[in-house]
Each structure stands twice: as C-alpha cells, then as structure tokens.
Amino acid sequence: MNSTVEKVTDRIINRSMAHRASYLRHMEESMVVGPFRHRLPSSNLANGLAVCQGGECQALRGGLAPNIGIITSYNDMLSAHHTYEHYPAMIKKAVAAAGGTAQVAAGVPAMCDGVTQGEAGMDLSLISRDVIAMSTVIGLSHNVFDGALLLGICDKILPGLLMGALQFGHLPMIFVPGGPMRSGLSNREKAQAREQFAQGKISKEEMLAVECASYHGAGTCTFYGTANSNQLIAEIMGLHLPGASFVNPDDPLREALTNAASARVCELTHLGENYTPIGHVVSERSVVNGIVGLLATGGSTNQTMHLVAIARAAGIRINWDDFSDLSEVVPMLVRIYPNGPGDINSFQDAGGMAVLIGELLAGGFLHNEVMTVAGEGLERYAQVPALVAGKAQWSDGPGKSLEPEVIASVTQPFSPTGGLKVLDGNLGRAVIKVSSLADGAATCIEAPAMVFHTQTGLEEAFRAGKLDRDLVAVIRFQGPQATGMPELHKLITPLAVVMGRGYRVAMVTDGRLSGASGKVPAAIHVTPEALCGGLLAKVQDGDLIRIDVGSGSLELLVDAAELAKREYAEAELGEQRYGVGRQIFAALRSDLLGAEEGASSLFTYVHEKCKVNFSTET
Fold first, then answer.
1. Phi, psi values for residue 59, rounded to 5°
2. Domain residue spans in the chain?
3. Which residues contact residue 562 at a Cβ distance below 8 angstroms, ignoring those fewer than 6 apart?
4. 3-state DSSP call for residue 148?
5. What band does 340 get if pLDDT is binned at 50, 70 and 90?
6. Exposure string (b/e) for 134-156, b if CB count within 10 Å is 16 or more?
7. SS3 at position 606
C-alpha cells in the first residue's frame, strides 16, 4: 500500500473509533433469527400480505424465503430514472427464481440538476438528498425485509439512498444502476454552443437543437459529472456488481446484470451462509477507496460533501484534509469531459472500471482487503461481465487500457496528483477542481472582487458588459443554511466567455458547482458560509482576492484592522426562500451542517444557529 493511503486510513479509523463502534453495536442489536417478517404479530403481517398472490403469498406466510425490498427512484420525466420503469417486475421474477420474494418498499423523489439549473427549484436539490434518505428509511421501517435493492443513480439520489440504507446496516443491499445514455453530440461542442448563445451568436432555437442532440435518450448524461461519479464510487466501494456501472440501458447485458444483482442479494442475507450486510461493505477502507477513485478520475466536487455524509451515516468521520492528503499522491488516470474530450462511454470502451481498479490496485492506492457485494476482495472488480446464454458471467478484464488517451497506466499517469485541491485562508476553507481547468489556465489568480448575492446579478452584469475585466466573482449567501446550497454551474458559461476574451477570471462562492464545473478556476463550498459568520460576508467590490492552487491558499488581501471595522453584509433571502415550495423546507434548511461536514441535517443536534454537535448515537 502507498504509505500516505495507509496513513490517512489509519487516522480515519482512529478518528472514527467511538462512532463506528456505536454504529456497529446498533447494527448487531437489530439482528433476528429467521426472516424478519416472522417477528410480526399476525395482524401486522396480514397487512403486508393483503395484495400478495399465489406462490408469493405462501412464501411470505411461511418458510425461510428471503424477502427483498425494492427502493426505486423511477419517474418517467428524467432520462436516468426512466430506465427503472420495468425493473420491479424484472427483479421480482429474478428473486423468485432465486428462491425469494420481492416487494416495492418505497419510491423516492429524483430531481434533475440539469432541469433546475439556474432556476428556483435548484435551491431544493441538495436538501432532496436528506429527503431521499428519510424516504428510504420509511420504506424499510416496516421491518419485513431481509435485504434490499436500491434503484438510484444521479446527483443526490444515490447518496441519499445510501445514507438511508445505512440506517439498516444489518441488511445486505445492492445498488442496481441503469447505465448511461448512448453518446450524442459531444460535450465539448455543447459547451462551445452555450458560450455562443451567451454572446448572442446563435438563437434559442439553435441552442435547443444542440442541447437535444446532447440529451437524446434514456440513461444518465454522458459527461463525467456527479451522476457518473456516483456510479464509479459505488462500484469501487463494492456496492455494485463488478462492471455494472456503465453498461447502456439498451444493452441486453443491462438486464442480465439486474437479474444477477437480484439473485445475489438473496445469497447475502442472514438466512444463508454468505451474510454480507451493507454496514460492513461500507467501512473505513472502502470509504478511502471511494475517495481514491474520485481523485484518480477527476470526479465531481459534490462528492466532497456526499462522501462525508455517507461516511457519517456509517459512523465514519472523514474531512477535507483526508481528500487533500490523498490528492497529493493519487495519480490522475482518466481523461473524460470535462477533464478531456471523451465521455463515460469512451471510458467504458477503454476498459472502464476493471482497468481503473486494476491499475490502482497495482499501484497500491486501493485497499483490496474489503468486503463487497461480490465477495471478499476488491480484486474481483478487475473482472468484466459478458452475456453468455442470456446470463451475466465474469472473466478477467483486459489488464491494461484499450485507449491510453482515456485511461492511463499508473506508471505513466496524466498527472502525478489527483484532480482536487483544498484551499485554506482567511476567507475560510474551500475546494477547487483543478483537473478540468483550461490548458494553460493560471493556478494563481489575484484580482479585484465583484460581489453578487444572486446568480441573476452576475448574469445581468455580464449582459451589461460589466464583467470585461480581471475579476474574482464572489457569489455569496449560497451556502446550506442560506439557500440550500444551489449549484451555480450556469454561471460558468458567462465567466468562460470573459476568460476567453483574455481576462483573468475566477469564482469564489459558498455555493456548489458540479462534476462538469468547466474551465474557470472556482473556489467553491467556502465554509464557514457567509450567513454563518464567514468572512465572505465582509468582502466588498474592488477588494483583492488571491487564489493560489500551488500553496493551497484562499486570501482576502485586506488589512485586518480594516476588516475588523466592517459590518457583515446582510442577506436579503426572502425571495430565495419562497416559491416552488422552498418555504416548506425552512426547518430542514436551518439545520444543515457546513459543507465540510457533509451539508446534511440528519446526524446532528443543533444547539444554536450555525454551531453544531453531531453524533450517530443520537
């Protein structure tokens, strides 16, 4: 093992010891002998059997058949989740063939950041992760299931499902992906068209035609954003079957993998000899593996919150220092958009997860000694599935990249360090994604601040020509407690246009960007957020700000005595907390932790505004 990976893992284990022990104790206390449904009184169980038919009803009423819960994020509006329409019927048939029964336990909401980008609904995006986690818990709370299959893919859906599922850590669970859509118009062409539209060079009708050529069918978006980062991390943490992440929805192998997951979860219940609860699959070592996978591929910055929250759900404590230290030694092995010209299908064609995991294992960057849904040892994930006589069968992967310009070897990486950097300074702590910066982009920028309290404020300034200068755009009061921490990806386009005109441009915000954050240097997730006493609330137009990736610093270059005299700017959030239902989430929003603590409200007691204690024991 790489010595830094070992060191970070050991300190996470030590930091988490008390919380993890408490979590595992509660998990063990939840176990029973025999199927869980047999503990229910007859009247209770009868309510769960009321709509069962034939052999399914008989299996549930007696015997030792495992009952598998299905938590689905299906809706028929969004491409990634439309794929799940027929999965429950498919799963029930496959589970029955494996000697079990399956029931849809719950549906969870699945919203799309692509649809809500720059709109009021985006303010509910991050909060939806906690809602999904709670919905998952409610679905499993009937306590009649011996295992579960989790159907979720995109930005907040998979993390929310996992956070909720880990509250039933004594049950085996497998994530069942739906796969990415086939490649359409390239992501780079799409980004160029957006810049042209922002400058008025193409019409709205032409822009819509470009977008529809990019988003054109069932499956996840093809760029390497949060959705595909979720899938990669789930697989490298052993929560998918090997090679399941990036098989397209219309590939016959996709159905075979779903059937295999359905049969496999039956084998993993406590009723058999291969008991593998999800609370053991998600461990300190598998969380480190997830971080390594993120860094080696230049994945979504959203994972600096999602992985923190997921780890907390399992009694594990990680922070941005862990990401930063690992990023110093984990090599960059993957180039797909926004880090390169290809997309997630290019990654799959190059050998995909089997090659990536094989390279990282060979370099000593991943823990092999982990429990996975495929069995013990991450080396199983260097295998690839194929369709043989209508079923998924696994064999050794290609061993090396089939497209070295997409997946590099660990001995000749694209970069010796990972794609993420943590910044620290008087403005607070932040993260910056360096893997997607434009070629030749400055990694040290010092420029005057232009301060905005809303996305529309920056867009209006762009249209008025006020951004044509060197600047650091400060977009504040976008943090978790202020507005629910919306994603500000829409602002990358106008800033990229200004950058293309030869100006030095950067962004600083307590809001979010995404895996597709693009070429503009952006210090994001600034914590403490402006609403909670962060120095961002004292920044004024014209103040010099320095972002230095090399030294990892984020500084407001204003004399301390001057700063002490300044009042904190007041947030005018009334209009941003009402409409499209945002008002109903006020209580949940006010309890959200800071970005580095996962930006969740689920594992904390709040004692006073912006000051929190947290414990999985509460």
1. -65, -40
2. 3-182+217-396, 420-577, 587-614
3. none
4. strand
5. confident
6. bbbbebbebebbbbbbbbbbbbb
7. strand
* Amino acid in the structure at residue 106: A
For residue range 566-604, list pLDDT tens digits in order: 999 998 888 888 888 899 899 889 889 999 999 998 976
**∠ at Cα 559 (557, 564), nearest 5°?**
120
Residues whose CB falls within 8 Å of the CB of residue 446, separated by 6 or more in sequence, listed in order: 544, 545, 546, 547, 557
- What's the pTM value of the predicted model, to 2 decimals? 0.94
Tally of helices (H runs) and strands (E runs) in the chain: 23, 18
The SS3 of residue 539 is: coil
The residue among 403, 359, 363 whose CA lies nearest residue 381 is 359
CB 140 within 8 A of CB 69: yes
Which residue type is seen at 221?
A: C
SS (H, E, C) 222-290: CCCCHHHHHHHHHHHCCCCCCCCCCCCCCCHHHHHHHHHHHHHHHHCCCCCCCCCCHHHHCCHHHHHHH
Residue 373 CA to residue 185 CA, distance in Å, equals: 36
| 527 SS3 class | strand
- Cα–Cα dist 4/363, whole Å: 12
Among 218, 179, 176, which Cα is nearest to 70's? Answer: 176
Alpha carbon separation from 588 to 174, 482, 607 (Å, rounded) = 29, 12, 14
Structure tokens at 243: 């090679």
Provide the sign of the torsion angle of the four alpha carbons 149, 152, 153, 159, taken in this order: negative
- In tens, the pLDDT along 360-369 reads 999 999 999 9
Token pair in block for residue 192: 């160029």
Amino acid at 323: F
Dump the DSSP string for 376-433: E-GGGGGEEEEEETTEEEEEE--SS-S-TTTB-BTTB-SBSS-SEEEEEETTEEEEEE
Tokens describing residue 223? 């760029």
Q: Which two tokens stand for residue 538?
A: 């004292």
According to DSSP, the residues that pair with 384 across neighbouring strands are 395
DSSP structure string for 318-387: --HHHHHHHHTTSPB-B--TTSSS--HHHHHHTTHHHHHHHHHHHTT-S--S-EETTEE-GGGGGEEEEE
In this structure, what token pair is assigned to residue 513? 């960007």
Q: Does the domain made of 420-577 have the CATH classification 3.80.30.20?
A: no
